[in-house]
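Q&A log
Question type: sequence-to-structure
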Amino acid sequence: MNVMDSMKQSVIVPVVVIEDAKDAVPTAKALLAGGINVMEITLRTAAALDSIRSVAKECPDMVVGVGTVLNIDQAKESVEAGAKFIVSPGFDEETVKWCIENDINVTPGCVTPTEIMAARKLGLRVVKFFPANVYGGLKAITNLAAPFTDMQFIPTGGVNTENIAEFVATPAIFAVGGSWVCKKSDISEGSFDKITQLCQEARRQAGAQS
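Response status: OK
Response body:
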């Protein structure tokens, strides 16, 4: 199963912030137990790259990627650490082109028609929409999808268990992203059973197949 298939099947792309690399593998296993086999470890902490290395080495069933990639150097470091996909909060043409040239799945953040057109011109058909709750949420995505009929979006920010069904029922939505199923506090406190339960509940609400 490739990266995009994993995202589609999991429905949710967890945005994971890990402050201690020792928590990376238990978090990955908790997500897997909850029916999710893809995770985006963000570069918001010093433990991020070591966390990616650990998951890539010890959890072969988990498709681990990296988020909050701001430039090409971060993308290269993350791929060397074992990241299978790149997620950026915005659109950086240099980073996107490098990923495409090296056959690395990349999902840049695009919230304007100009950004979507730039991504589409490079061959991308799935982009991140972040922060979704700030830029108009599902209504904005639906309107943007009207002229871009071959594009799909992964909204992050404002998606939760209560509204996930509405999002995934929209054809323009490829999957959803978010940290509500694996909160930083739950990870640091070792509440891995809770993470599994949150994933299972979110997937049930989304109507996902187990």
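Response note: The mean pLDDT is 97.
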